[in-house]
Design a protein that fits this description.
alpha+beta, Heat Shock Protein 90, Ribosomal Protein S8, Chain: A, domain 1, 3 domains, eight-stranded mixed beta sheet, five-stranded mixed beta sheet, 37% helix, binds adenosine-5'-diphosphate, binds magnesium ion
Length: 610
Amino acid sequence: MPDKITLLPDNIANQIAAGEVIQRPASAIKELLENAVDAGATEIKLIINDAGKSLIQVIDNGSGMSETDARMSFERHATSKIKSIEDLFHIRTMGFRGEALASIAAVAQVELKTKRVEDETGIYIEVENSAVKKQEPIAAPVGTSIAMKNLFFNVPARRNFLKSNAAEMRHIVDEFTRVAMSFPEILFTLTANNQQLFHLESGSLKQRIVQLLGNNYNAKLVTVKEETDYMNIYGFVGKPETAKKTRGDQYFFVNNRFIKSPYLNHAVMSAYQEMIPSDSFPMYVLFIDLDPAVVDVNVHPTKQEIKFEDEKIIYAFVQAAIKHALAQFSVTPTLDFDLDASIQQLSSIQQPFTEERKSAASSGSIFKGFTQKHQAHFIEKNDKNELKHWRDFYESPETRVGSQESILKSGDTIPTHDTKLKTDGELTQLLNTYITLPSANGFLLIHQQAAHERVLYEQLKAASKDKPVATQRSMFPSTLELTPADAAIMQEIIEDLQQLGYTIEPFGKNTFVIQGTPADVEAGNEKHIIDILLEQYKHFSNEVKFSKREKLIRSLARQQAIKTGVRLTEREMRQLVNDLFACEQSNSTMDGNPTYLEFKQEQLERMFGK
Ligand code: ADP
Ligand code: MG
């Protein structure tokens, strides 16, 4: 038997490794933008064609590279940013693994132009399949331009895996937004297919936020700023009224690196408690700066996770900082919060301050918050008790919820319109939210919003399968001006919207005209409806398991459903109940929550101890 093991040729090994760093155009863009930032550029231009599939080019006015460095930069593990393991713990640059350019050179045709200020001429290098094709001196401005063409030209399997241009464009705008957000002092432009989508002059963080996320945040931002010797936080949170139904505008940066942290997100959300509805999301752009030694950046660069040495204190710090900020702007009297016992016991809080730490920290009000009582920004006790009782009740076998499974398991009444349920029974509305309907030996408590969502969902689904929903042309078409990110989404859903009765046409850069809506949409309200629709769509857009059409239907159902708190007439209730029980799956909403609960008289009696 011959030996079996062979060494993979370099270019193949590089292609495989590239898969980790470069999954799509947006990931290459992130790497190139970060390199430009690391090179100290004050101006960074991003140019793309075909959603990055045919061209991605980043031009910067940073340090540039020497001839040797330019050649070296495409080698795997070639980096100027660390020299020893020890350096890892002090890393302040965005990159440090020396993998990006090697990966890019393995899966695209790359043209590099670079020149340092001290060099007479610049250098031009062409690389393909990890091999240098051409190298020659050229005249060039100081800085670096890297163009990568035909991404995955040599890896068809990956190329085929790319999504539609609209979808890739959204990833690109997301990535661009994150980098541009964290460096407001740098000028950024983004040009796609010869059209300039962003031109972000250098300025303050506040200006950058408004440039990127829209003018409606202007005058609605609350400054967050707390400094201690352990960590700093600065940035902005939206006033409660700017909270949206989707978590779109939420940005956390740790040492200027964008991260996703459900844990820290929770800290922010909890600071907003009682100020915004529980199903809405506040806007925030927050920068946390910590000694790099207490953050593990050695998680993979493409993963936006992070490990902190002491998560709890960071949670408490973030929560307190936001509460403090909100309390300062708020006109309502501040509430007293108790310091959470578990946080109080953290050694970092109990430790007496040394004289030097004291003076360093005394400027930051946050530590006062940890040590003085009756401050607005005291950490709230995490008291979920009330909720827990409700959950116990809800989940106990005594109370049966309207989910198919639990109803079927119990074996008796299956409440559908043709069995034991009389939809002609007396209907009462409670709290402008629930409708009671008598059932065999008790009653159903129907949630009007959940029920209507189910009804609309099934109706829209039926409509989208058959002939399109009838459109009513608007007498006065209204124009929609969207942010570039939203415009990309609109492009993506415009055809499906047509099927569902919305005629929307592109009208120049980021602008659309609403030509028609389904007949039942009130005139004058179209714009608002599309706004909410986009919000809802974004809300579902992380659900990879849904098709575009499905996301849209869900968004529409959610948006158009009767809300809680709306008084219904007897006729409206009757209509809703009839429609609900005509549904294929009347007992749950599209995301699996019950549309009604059933209460049996015997259960109620037992609960009263009878
Ligand atoms: P890393 O950023 O992790 O060091 P990269 O593969 O992204 O690795 O880049 C390799 C090296 O090439 C960098 O360390 C840097 O020295 C150099 N380099 C890359 N891009 C630029 C740029 N735009 N300007 C100057 N130097 C650059
Ligand atoms: Mg890099």
